[in-house]
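To whoever picks this up:

The parser on our side crashed when reading a file containing two proteins. I've narrowed it down to the boundary between the first structure block and the second sequence. Both blocks are reproduced below exactly, byte for byte. First block:
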Amino acid sequence: MLVVLGSINADLVFRVESLPRPGETVSCASFAFHHGGKGANQACAAARAGAVVRFVGCVGEDAWGPVLRRGLEEAGVDTSLLATSPRPSGTAVIAVDETGENAILVASGANLDVSADQLDRAGLGKGTTLLCQNEIPLATTRAGLARGRALGARTILNFAPAVAGALAVLDEVDVLVVNHGEATRLLDRDLPPEAAVRALASHTRTCVLTLGRDGALAVGPEGAWHVPALPVEPVDTTGAGDTFTGVLAAGLDLGLPWTEALARAAVAAGIVCERLGARSGQPTSEEVAARRAELPPVLPLALS
């Protein structure tokens, strides 16, 4: 079983010709609502990848709350530990330009009230996995990871969005997933990708560094690999990182070998980039299997 402790948002997505610069107003014809939040996105990606997933988080007592809960349930996620808060449900405003690049504003709302105490009934223990991100308070994430580790669960952290000087949180982490920018913030210095993944792997058991079109690097006791990206023409890159992380967590929770879990995560992330919406574009396990042969081989990585 995979338990996800994290955020859930209503995403308002605007398609624009170009992303606004400071002080600039950019007009577009309309917007679309999508289910979002890094925690909820990763939970849904993992469920679609075949894992048994329980989500632990918080929505508001507003019109968005039931909508967001239903979105998780429709993806096959257990919402029995999704609490409610007097704050508004988390909301994100996302601008996506013609190249698929995005800019995002997030109002955390009810996500600020998520508590590690909610994990008491989550069923964590040996043979289970706890997945966290950084869209709820860092103290809550760290407390949750400590509980998971104490109970014998595998702990995975997608440290996004990243803040500088927070390396201590990695004490409770088995698998860290970050992109290059997040690695720079976490280390508080800019290193080349191979140096960054090696530096972060020294603080945790395994580090996976995602690199967009250049794939990902993974370093840990199991080995060191370069994972290529699925060759695609991107439409919307918004959900790629969350899909990669959720599918990777699902693969590890299901007992897949590391290289196969990484490969499936890369395929799923590529597929979601071909579609609009951080969550609505997430592929099923059958869709990932159908595209698996398109991914170049995962190769051993020689680190100097």
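<<boundary where parser fails>>
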Amino acid sequence: MGLDRLIVALDNALKSLTIGAPHSGRPSPSADLPDASLTDSERRHAAGLMRVNHAGEIAAQGLYQGQAFVAREAELRSLLLNAAREEADHLQWTQGRLDQLGARSSVFNPLWYAGAFALGLAAGCLGRKKSLAFLVETERQVEAHLTGHLTRLPQADTASRAILEKMSSDEKEHGESAARAGAESLPEWVQAAMKRSAKVMTQTAYFL
């Protein structure tokens, strides 16, 4: 069992950082939308925001895979891996949008994945309720972050907007599913630490 989980975790890490983690195959919300005409500065700004969101999805893969790796209950592990699969859709969508914008992903993606995986392992070792609490708080912060990005996107960038709106809807559902499954509240200092860590990643990934 342990070896099987290790192989799955390594496989996911490699795919997330190269070709994209296995996903549910949902088409991108922007698939049928024309690519709007953006100025050079608007395109750079949109690319920076989408690079941040792509980095966030890399981190989400690491977090959920880390939690699933140490999950003792089959039901909890299934919930985490299902969330990871839907988050992998987001990974594909944001990568596709970066490609359209002629931009690269963050050079620090391996660091974001490794750090999030370590956090996931730690959260998972605290037991079911705490592990679910990390999922709830992560999704809450990501949803707030996406809301902020929607206000900062160039008005004409309907493709990126459609992707972020669907991502936000998914994040909300993941958080609500974890809450229904019995998540506890995290201490305020833990929530604050998660926000600070996320701020470092978002500020760095926008440029790098």
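After patching the parser it read the second block fine. Residues 68 and 77 are 5 Å apart (CA to CA). The mean pLDDT is 87.
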